[in-house]
Amino acid sequence: MRLLLNVSSLQAPLTGIGRYTLNLTSSLLKSGRVSEVTGFSAAGLLGPAEVERLLQSLDTEAKQSRSVSGDRSGLRALVASLPGARFAYRNMREFNLRRQFQQLREHVYWEPNYLIAHDDFASVVTLHDVSHLRYPEFHPATRIKEMGRVLPRTLSAATRLNVVSEFTCREVVEYFNPKQPIDIVPPGVGEEFFNVSADEVARCKEKFNLPHEFVLSVSTLEPRKNLARLVDAYEQLPEALREKYPLVLAGATGWHASPIENSLRRLVEKKQAIILGYVEQPMLPALYAAATLTAYVSVYEGFGMPIVESMAAGTPVLTSNVTSMPEVSGKYAALVPPDNVAEIASALEHCLSNPDRLISMSQAGVARAREFSWESAALKLFESLEMAKDAHG
């Protein structure tokens, strides 16, 4: 099979969709099921050799700590926010694809990022969630407008749809009732999360000046991640627990982050919270492994990678009992209603006060995380692509 791929998300630093695209594409090529991948973007076409070099360079960068990546992420967001930038970028990408259609028509097109760029290929489009419809207040207006204008075309033209969880499948059916079959292709967890050494943990703690034990939150600072309620719940813990287990936040500053930063300031002043900001991908496995507990009480997730990444590193997880999070954790995490500060606080206190509970959660979590691999995900994606090809004729 020859694959056509939108490579727009394959830019450093990789977003969650970028890592999903990188790992699945690399796994497809390594498996031999896909003979070559041709890429396209607003800049033009990338031949198979260029795509392989791009994948290799991103994989190499993902294994190296580069503090400049966070700055590039901010610049990318700034450019995307310029009036008309998204529209112009998408039009240029589609123009480049139309010019080359004849030489690419035998390819199967995988669109990993919602919005189809050409109607005439056998195609599989991945929808990661529908949070822009369920919680529009968590998104900039430009994003809502773009999705509302272009997503109907995807639902009209795609041969098959992919989603990352059973929950997202139900959401897509509820909101769109699509005519296409839907295949579930969840992300995987890299081996680096399962194999963190004591030396790597020690280096991570030294690099970030971290305490011996702490509660970790890994997420972008934005309203959907519910960090304001997490902070309020953490403040309700007994003083002794807050002194023993500071709250450590890792994640770039996102949309509408100021209220979250303001609520954190008082904890930082007491030395009961540490804000790391953007943390390079290579440091994340050791950061998870260094933590006592990961708290991820998001309001809405299509999947929720921090859940399985923390579990793989052997760190117990406290997460929300809504959307995809119970499904992803396999109910091996402590589950709380994300809108109830008192219950979040109670669950935090219970976990931190019961070492035996943490040990049992850790052991069960590692086994659960083993159920998610990039190799098995790539096989599911390949099967979806094959069925799209057969259906398209």
Write up what this structure looks like.
It is a single chain. The chain is built from 18 helices and 13 strands. The chain has 393 residues and is α/β, with parallel strands linked by helices. The chain folds into two domains: 207 residues, 3-Layer(aba) Sandwich (Rossmann fold); 179 residues, 3-Layer(aba) Sandwich (Rossmann fold). It has a seven-stranded mixed sheet, sandwiched between helices. The chain has a six-stranded parallel sheet with strand order 10-9-8-11-12-13, with helices on both faces. α1 crosses α18 and α14 crosses α17. The longest helix has 19 residues. The protein is globular, with a radius of gyration of 21 Å. About 3% of the residues have low confidence.
